[in-house]
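Dear support,

We are seeing what looks like truncated structure output for some complexes. This example has two components. We would appreciate it if you could run it in full and send us the complete token output so we can diff it against ours.
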Amino acid sequence: MKKIVICLSILVLAMTACSDFLTEEPKLSQTKELTLAKPSGLDDSAAGLYLYLQSNAWYGCQYVLNNELMAGNATNPVSKPGSGRYRTEEPWSFTESSTWSTWSMGYITIAAANNVINNIDGKVGDGYTQADLDNIKAEALFMRAFVHFQLVTIYALPYLNGTNANELGVPYMKEAVIGSPARDSIGYCYNNIVADLVEAEKLMQDDYQRASISDPLASVTKPAIQALLSRVYLYMGRWQDAADAATKVIKNNKFKLYSPADYLAMWSQNVASQGGEIIFEMYSSKKNDSWDDSGWTMLPYITYVDGSADVCATEDLFNMYEAGDVRSQLFVANENDHFITKYLGKAASVDPKENNVPILRLAEMYLNRAEAILNGARVEGTTAEKDLNTVAEARGASHVSPSATTIFDERRKELAFEGHIWFDYKRLGKSIKREDYRAQQTQYQNVQYSGNEGQWAMPIPLSEINANPNMVQNPYYDTKK
Amino acid sequence: MLLTCLLIGVSAVTAQISNVTGYVTSASDEEPVIGAAVAVKEVPTLGVATDLDGRFTFTNLPKEAKTLVISYMGMITQEARISPNMRIVLQEDAELLEDVLIVGYGTTKREAKTGSIATVVADEIAEIPASSFDKMLSGKLAGVQITSSSGQPGASTQIRIRGTSSINSGNEPLYVVDGIPVLTGNMGEFTNTGNAMAMINPDDIESITVLKDAASTSVYGSRAANGVILITTKSGKEGKSVITARAKYGMSYLANDNDFGVMNGQQLLSYQRAAIVNAGRNPDDPTYAYYRPYELLTRPQTNWMDHMTRNGQMQEYELNASGGSQKTKYYSSLSYHQNDGVYYGVTFNKFQARINADHQVNKYINTGVRINAGTMYSEDVPMQSLYYSNPAFAGMTILPWSPAYNADGTHTIDIPENSYTNPRATAAYDQQWDRQYKLNGNMYLEITPLKGLVIKTTNAAELTFEEGRRYWSPLSGKDQSPTLQTTEDMYRVLTTSNTITYDTNIGKNYLRVLAGQEAMATDYHGNYQYSYDLNPDMPYHVGGNPTNDLDYGVSRETMLSFFGILDYNYDSRYYLQVSVRKDGSSLFADGSRWGTFPSVGLSWNIQNEKFMSGVDAVDLLKIRASYGITGNNNIGAYNQYGLYTTVTYNGFTGMFPASPSNDNLSWEKNKSWNLGIDFRVFKKLYGSIDLYKRTTDDMLLYKGLSRTSGFSSALQNIGSMENKGIEFQIDYDAIQTKDWNWTVGFNIAANKNEILDLGDDEMLAYSGDSRIQHIVGNSLFTYYVKDYYGVNPLNGEALFVTESGELTNDYNKARYIEAGSPEPKYTGGVSSTLSWKGITLSVVCEFKGGNKIFIVENRYLQSDGNQMSMNQAKSALNYWEKPGDTGCNPKPVAGNTSNSYSFGTDRFIEKGDFFRFKDVTLSYDMPHNIVSKAKLSSARIYLSGQNVYTLHDVNFWDPERGIDGMGAGVYPMTKSFIVGLDLAF
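Here is the complete output from our reference environment:
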């Protein structure tokens, strides 16, 4: 009988303790509420915002190579069979089920940024001052603006001095919520990008640099905000603003153009050296959680002649460099193909290789300003010719006189394989005419893509169209029409 | 005990002396009964057991001794008046052997069942040479579909009871061993063969009961939606101890009943030369990429398929002992199983020990333990996908003129066409293994304070420790950095199960009431490490290695349940069973945490009605009906929370959103109806028919979200699915004479699955392979691929069908079609057991039909010239040669890019129907008079074959390729033949 009593009391105990017994919280992750309640959690969440920059869809590979392949800087080699990847970008064979993948990674990063931005106010304490919180908030604002800028430049028509301001942009998300937002206009997107960056610039301290990270220039600093502003204004045709923002960076004595030898060495650095050209970059490491499981889908492997060798430079690009131009040394020949060597891997990295990718660097600022001045901006103490030749001379190229064409060509030479060229064509409404088609796809030889046409607004991924009833596909790619 | 008997015997010397001898035999076979308990009724402490000849002796019996009680498990206990020479014939207890069923939280008489229940008993399980018992159920139970996903020793099985009810929450039944739910599935990390069920020694199993309908399963509540398999292990029997030794030895090789194979050098060369000519090139041109001179045949040739395989070998040894007194009984076993696979590098072995003990403390209290412990080791090579290092794939594709060895006799990796990989080198120089240590133990205490009232508590612990290692050596791959991965996983499941049962007869009314409570906590933690650039002479995670990376996992899941069962019958004619269970689970948020799972079952035993009293032919005629609700909570922990997780970037550990929250997340609900009839006529022919319909609602699906939310999808309770079907099982005791005995059985079941709703979607890609889609209105799996038409008789090109129904040679213009389903329309089995004196021949066949399978490998093996660096299937030789040829492969063209060989079309989808002679066993039980001379109580020798022969039409090794029919690159099914010997002392 005693045992029965014991049994029954165990039973009763079990019943009363049941609500505690049934509450299990995760141990290796924590709830959103808990993470965002403390300044240290917000700080860590801001540090996490850079995570997906390395993903294959983004600076890991696709974002960069799509650009180069679509706009005649890159092609598939003839001398190497390749693995069959990156075969549909050159002929622009995009559909809503096979399109740029930046969308997902982009919005996931934006939502994470919004969590920081919308929860940080009033969290002073635990060793965090208002200035600390402002710096963190500025990082998140930068990331929100940066990603929206990339999305609107990929998935919408160009701004074109406001001509397309009322056309379909992308949803500009200021809150992380499960919902079905409609597309905002291109103008709305650009205005918000500028507003976020201007606020970020205001909030961030001049010398702020995130602590405890391997590569300080792989996180946002004030010059990075200014450099991105310069690019955004340039894309909008706000020439004076573009030139002024570029000037702030150029005047900052933290950065200077490299000597030819240092320029060649820059590409295999583990972390960007201070006082150099890099303003903001993607830090590549196998230890990053966004490292693709195998590494065999990343830029170094795809563009490496002894890697999968799927993508090489076009003759169109290669032939632009003069003999003494240090940038021509960044190509290696294999039979008649020229492979880019910007991403041969960090000095100590073994296969599959790690390789940082520049996102903002000083040479772009000079070229932005040269273009802005050519279009009417005025900056004390410099001219378009001076800025353009500052870059050309640093690379050992001969002197050029400034024109829309020479500045465009210099950008193409300088920023090749860094994810600029297609956007440059697009923002200027310039047609692409590609001549070099030694690859198998001869049917695409000499194809012209006229600027500012519907096919320049890349298809929104089908998964978004399916999940979001308010999402409108870009008309050129709309299969329901 | 015996000693006590002797002492009491001595103390009784002063009483009147009486000596008694006796002989106990069994009525059915007239053989002596060994180990029967013989007790004196008047002096309960006095008792002996019969010896090997069935004899017993009492000396110096006290005066009051008048009656002996003779009992033996499975026999009807008899009382007999004491006389000097006694001969006792025990009758088999038919009720015990046939008519008691193990059901949820108790037993029931077969005639009392209201649900749909199927059983397999010990004899049918033991001698099959598989590494786990789940494989032995094939073809035996109607509506229980057993699918092997691989022929690899130790691989787990996919069991579907009455179809598939879920897309994301798992479809395996709940396994309950000796009253306690256990962990199942593959618990290995690196190998395919960590089947947790392999830790149960098939010889230890007394019976397996499969609960199919909700009336029998819903008392297991939120885990019962896929059916429940109850396993009861053996208990000791009162009487003399019996020690049994068993040994088995067997060989296995790949099943290949359709003469499938790849080309030899000569065939391949002529095929490739034809392809080169078709491409308009010259095979003898040394500058051409596909230079294929006849000289290749003068080189040493390798049959790579033979080179990758060997005869598999299996051996198993077991020792068990059982016995007991009136108060204490035990069963113990120790076994060792070793199985070397058909492919080099594949090995599985296990050690296992069990002790089951029961003790009667006093009139009111019984207690006992069930403890099973063991270790299991599996080692394999990369399989289950089309890897270059997969011997099942590379064995078919490496060119016959590529040499296998280096000059120094080591395995070469200089095989450019196989990406500089050689599976033999992988098997020899790499390591890939898992070792599991398992302990399952439970202890029960059963109190019977008054007649009919039983209070029982069972408390159990299940512990699993897994250790895994995968090492890539520089010797096995070109430029391979020495790389090591290791894992250590620990699982701990603690369960307490407590019940109170009361049963009583009031006149013609029988009533049984059970109330119970259960609680369970499952803890997991795991640790994974990765290092590369190691020193190959020290292939471990050495300290200070900068490449070392660590992943840690920890989770906990709890569940609390209350349940009740009410059984009522009136006059053994009308039966009612009602059960209800309430489960609370930590997997769901506060408001949706508790679920209620009721069921009701009714049955009517017509043969017990007065109006049937004249119908002697009918021994049993029962109609059953049931309805109930069960659940499926088989999802990972913490899905209800919106989570942030740590992420590493740029040398810093930050935080990033991992999942959206869902406060409404809950279990999938499965509502099921069952209607059945059981019958037995002429005491020979018995069977049952069941009709069922079960509907899954609130199916857990990942609903795609707008990416602007920050997430790609969220797990939500949307969607529903239906299974309906019919099951028929019949057994016939055809011959039952003194020497001859023949029983035959047959079962068949048809199940129709239909997806009713997928939330917002009409079609959802199967997580395992996007060539399979879940389509509303179809059954669960539909192959959704491009429409391949066949060969163009005019020019030998492949033709496809376009959206408008026209033929085209352009793969890109081909339309998508629904090309069948891998789910069988019907499954079943036939069995026969024929015995004559001690010789028994038993045959079990299984069959399956109406399903399609997808031979993905053929994309490489019948590649029409696309894969010039791979060997081809012999069947590829049947290609278009001249205008007018049809029904053959397209003409091969070297460097073909037409996509005729694409695995995105229906070209390689075939009918998966088969009829398999699953198990054929011939055994011989030696006669007692011979055996007893060797001081044995029994001896049995047997010869058994598995997968002896399979009738099928598939152009591949074997038609069985897992539940989705897609098993590309898996270890094919094997045939095995074993000899075994059982000796009992």
